[in-house]
């Protein structure tokens, strides 16, 4: 049996095997000789096999010639697509690029569905796309960072943690948070915790006739509720501070803790006559309508709040460290200011156009620091600076207040 006949008897071999049949036994000088007729028959025979993908003899011939003359070496994933190409269809294949791997050429086919041919992205393009995606992620991260910075800035504003630029304001803030010395710490500790005689008088403020005993000052220990004596003495010290250095502090009036109760304590509620004599020229030496701000402590049974009459800016403010609001209190104070201006200065004042401001302010996070928050609202506002403190500062402010009361001098 000849070599061709032997190969032909094996029906399921590929067409390329038939195409490589010799016309004579091999020898050193033998040359390839194709038999066109037999080659065609060979492809025809191969196409008659059970493979449903090679029904057209030209399909088999195209595949054979593609491999024989340096055609596309199909990878495993491309074999099924390549076997469907006939000889005529093969001519429409266009090689558009290749990677370093011999079986990873990029092939596209004109006029065919793109899904029928596997396309691979060249290395440079893949790197470009990856870099672009990284750039997009970086842009996204930059945006998120900017958003976070804006949120932090907004939180700083909400918490009133400010960056001080004005030199005078910076000095005021530094004064407000000046650390206590070891001597101050010992004095504060002794006043709060040393000794059992609660009736021992520590200091007496002569102009207001307020006495501070060990029992009274211990309300400034951690967890204590501030009492009238401590609050009223501290407000007296703030007024004395303003007189000492009027260039550094706003012109303010500080009502004591009994004023508001007296103002609204009449039979019908509001009662100007009950407080009419509290603000005579002889007692104060100035008129309320000439002040920048007027501070009014408001006691709610077991909670301290603050009402502020901002005469200079023609507005009313209500500061509650628990976030509450009392519009009736502001209405009563607006009516009081009108009556006061007419009684003391013979001036008709119209407060209907004054604003009732809802200002953002530091809040307490416990059930006992409301009095300390109220005093610090007054202290900071009387300096003309923002409320740049928080709950974490209350322990320090309690000690500082003890020190200032013992020395009868607010700094």
Automatic annotation (TrEMBL):
The keyword Transmembrane helix does not apply. Keywords: Hydrolase, Protease, Thiol protease, Ubl conjugation pathway. GO terms for biological process: protein desumoylation; proteolysis. Residues 210-381 form the Ubiquitin-like protease family profile domain. GO terms for cellular component: nucleus. The keyword Protease applies. Pfam families: Peptidase_C48 (PF02902). Coiled coil: none annotated. InterPro entries: Papain-like_cys_pep_sf (IPR038765), Peptidase_C48_C (IPR003653). GO terms for molecular function: deSUMOylase activity. Belongs to the peptidase C48 family. This is Sentrin-specific protease. It comes from Rhynchospora pubera.
């Amino acid at each position: 049996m000849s070599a061709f006949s032997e190969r032909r008897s094996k029906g399921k071999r590929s067409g390329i095997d038939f195409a490589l049949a010799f016309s004579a036994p091999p020898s050193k000088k033998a040359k390839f000789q194709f038999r066109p007729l037999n080659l065609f028959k060979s492809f025809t025979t191969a196409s008659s096999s059970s493979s449903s993908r090679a029904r057209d003899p030209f399909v088999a011939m195209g595949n054979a010639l593609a491999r024989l003359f340096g055609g596309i070496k199909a990878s495993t994933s491309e074999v099924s697509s390549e076997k469907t190409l006939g000889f005529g269809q093969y001519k429409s294949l266009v090689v558009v690029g290749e990677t370093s791997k011999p079986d990873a050429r990029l092939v596209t086919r004109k006029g065919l569905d793109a899904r029928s041919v596997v396309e691979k992205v060249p290395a440079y393009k893949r790197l470009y796309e990856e870099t672009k995606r990284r750039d997009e992620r970086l842009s996204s991260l930059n945006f998120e960072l900017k958003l976070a910075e804006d949120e932090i800035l907004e939180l700083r504003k909400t918490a009133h943690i400010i960056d001080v630029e004005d030199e005078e304001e910076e000095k005021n803030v530094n004064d407000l948070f000046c650390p206590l010395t070891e001597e101050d710490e010992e004095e504060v500790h002794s006043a709060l915790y040393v000794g059992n005689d609660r009736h021992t008088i520590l200091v007496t403020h002569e102009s207001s006739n307020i006495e501070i005993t060990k029992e009274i000052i211990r309300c400034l220990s951690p967890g204590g509720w501030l009492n009238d004596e401590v609050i009223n003495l501290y407000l007296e010290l703030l007024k004395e501070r303003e007189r000492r250095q009027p260039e550094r502090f706003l012109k303010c009036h500080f009502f004591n803790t009994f004023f508001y109760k007296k103002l609204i304590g009449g039979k019908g509620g509001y009662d100007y006559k009950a407080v009419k004599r509290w603000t005579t020229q002889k007692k104060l030496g100035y008129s309320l309508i000439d002040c920048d701000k007027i501070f009014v402590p408001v006691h709610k049974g077991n909670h301290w709040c603050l009402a502020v009459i901002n005469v200079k800016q023609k507005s009313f403010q209500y500061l509650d460290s628990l976030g509450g609001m009392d519009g009736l209190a502001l209405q009563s104070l607006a009516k009081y200011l009108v009556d006061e201006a007419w009684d003391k200065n013979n001036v008709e004042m119209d407060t209907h156009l004054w604003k009732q401001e809802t200002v953002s302010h530091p809040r307490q996070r416990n059930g006992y620091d409301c009095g300390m928050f109220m005093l610090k609202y007054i202290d900071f506002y009387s300096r003309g600076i923002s409320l740049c403190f928080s709950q974490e500062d209350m322990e320090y402010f309690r000690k500082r207040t003890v020190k200032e009361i013992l020395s009868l001098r607010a700094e």
